[in-house]
Amino acid sequence: MEFDPAYLVRHLPALWRGLLVTIEVSLAGMLFSIVLGVLGAAARYLRIPGLWQFVAFYVEFIRNTPLLVQMFFIVFGLPAIGLTLSLFWCGVLSLALWAAAYHVESIRGGLETVNKGLREAGQALGLKPWQFLVKVSLPLALRVAIPSMLNTSVSLVKNSSMLQAIGLMELTFVAVDRMAIDFRMLEMFTVLVVVYLALVFVLSFVAGRVEHVLQRPFRA
Amino acid sequence: MMTRLVSTCLAVLALCGGAATAQELPALPDAIKDQGTLRVGVRCDQPPYGFKDQNGDFAGVEVEMARQIAQWATGGQIEMMCVTAENRIPQLTAGKVDMLIATLGKTPERARVIDYSTPYNWGGSDLLVMKDSPIQKLADVRQAETVVMLKGTTQAAWFDANEPDVPTMRLNSISDALQAFKQGRGDVMAADVATLTVIAEKDDSVRMVNEPFAISVGGIGVRKNEPEWLAYINAALDRMAKENLYIPWIEKWAPEDKWGFYKASFPPAPFPEIE
C-alpha cells in the first residue's frame, strides 16, 4: 500500500476540523485544570476542614483509575443521575478533572519548597495564611511547579485523543474513522504523528517562554 | 405447492451439482499448507455473523464458514481471532491472519487496499427512531438533531457522502451507540438492517424507518497479490453455496423468526447488482 498524497488532500478539511476540536478541548481542559489545581492545592495548604480531605481523596481517586473509564463514566454514567453534558463538555470535564489531580500535587510540591523564614516573616507582618498564600507562596510555588505542570499539560493534549472513544470528533477520531471506512492507514497515521508532535512543540515553546518570564526576577 | 415443488427440484439439482464439483477446489497455496493451520479474523460482537456463545466459544454463520474452509484446506486446523471494525485491516495486512470473514462490506476505496472474494452476503442500512419521532422516511433525517452510528462503517461513509450537513455522533460499539441513543444524545440511530431489526424487536419504545439505504455486499478479505489464495477461497465459497451449507448455519445461529431475513441475504439467494 503506497502513500497517496491525493487521498490525504481529499480529507484535509475534515482533519482540520478535527484539529480545531482537539485544540479547543485541550485549551479549555488546561484552563479549567489549572484553576482547579490551584484551588485544590490551596485547600490542602490551608487545611480547610472537610475540603482538604476531599481533595486528597480526589487526587488519589483520579490518579488510580484509568482515564478512559473516567471518560465513559462522565459520558454514560452521569446521564443516569440526571446530568447530560454535550460531548465537548464531557471531554473538557474529563480532561480537566484528570489534569487537575496532577496539578494539585505539582503545586503542593512547589508550596513545600517555600522557605520557612518567609512564612515567619509573613506572620511577623500580620499576613493571614490565605494572604501569605496568595501574595507570597503561590507565585513562588508556581515557578517551581511549571515544568511538571507543563508535563501534565502535554499529556492532556495527547490524552485528548482518547476522547475518540466517546465519539468526540477530534483529530484522532477523524483519522480513525477514515481508516476504518477506507482501510488506508499510512496517510492518516502520518498526519496524526506530525500534528501531535507539532502541537506539543508549540506548547513546550510557550511554556518555556512563560518559565523564562517568571524566572526573570531571580536572574542576576 | 407448485413453488415448493420447484424449489425442491432446484435443491436436489443444487445438491447433485455440488456433489459433482465437490472435489474441485484448486490447489492450496504453499504458505498455508506449510503453516498447517488456517488463521482467520472473525467478529466477536455481531450475532448471528460472528460472536461468542455462552461458553465463550466462537459462534455464528461466519465462524461456521471459517471452520468449513479450514475443514477443506487444513483438515480442520484453525486459529480464530476476534477483530473489530477498526483493527481488522491492520491484522490482515500485518499478516496476523490469512483472511477476514468479518462482516466486511465492499467499497471501491477499500478494494484499493485489500482484495475481496466473491460476495457471500448483502445488506442495507436503516434508521432507528423513538416511536413518537416525526421522522417517517429517509429524507426526514435532515431534520434530525444528531444521528448516532458506529465509527468507520458503511453508514458513516454514506452520511459523509450524502448528508454531510446532518450532525452525527460515532461510537465504537453497538452497545455504546444504543446507550447514547436511549439517553437522548441523538434522536436517530443508523446501523445495519440486521442489527436494528434485533433491537426494534426487543424494544417497544423504538421503531425502524424501514427505508433501507447504502446497500452493500460483503466478502472475505485477503491481502493484495495473493491470487492463488483468493481463487481457493472463491472456489470454497462457490462450493458452500452449491452445497446449500448456509441454510443450516443460519438455522443454528439466528433466531427462528429471522431465518427468512438472513436466508435472503446469504447464497443461494440472489444479490443486488452493485459496483
Describe the structure.
With 220 residues, chain A is mainly alpha-helical. Chain A has helices at residues 5-10, 12-45, 51-63, 67-77, 87-112, 116-124, 129-159, 171-182, 186-215. Chain A has one domain (5-218): MetI-like (MetI-like fold), CATH 1.10.3720.10. Chain A is built from nine helices and no strands. In chain A, helix 7 (129-159) packs antiparallel against helix 9. Chain A is flat. Chain A starts with a helix and ends in a 5-residue tail after the last helix. Chain B has two domains: 29-120 and 219-263, D-Maltodextrin-Binding Protein, domain 2, CATH 3.40.190.10; 123-215, 3-Layer(aba) Sandwich (D-Maltodextrin-Binding Protein, domain 2). In chain B, strand 9, helix 6 and strand 10 (168-171) form a beta-alpha-beta unit. Chain B is globular, with a radius of gyration of 20 Å. Residues 16-21 of chain B have low confidence and may be disordered.
Short characterization:
The complex is a heterodimer of chains A (220) and B (275). With 220 residues, chain A is an all-alpha fold.
What is the approximate shape of chain B?
globular
Tally of separate domains of chain A: 1
Question: From N to C, what is the helix and strand string of chain B?
Answer: HHEEEEHEHEHEEEHEHEHEEEHHH
Largest interface, C-beta within 8 A: A-B, 22 and 28 residues
Number of strand segments of chain B: 14
Question: Which CATH top level class of the largest domain in chain B fits?
Answer: Alpha Beta
Category by helix and strand content of chain B:
alpha/beta
Q: pLDDT under 50 segments of chain A (min length 5)?
A: none
Give the strand tally of chain A: 0
Radius of gyration of chain B: 20 Å
**Helical segment tally of chain B?**
11
Largest sheet of chain B: 6 strands, mixed
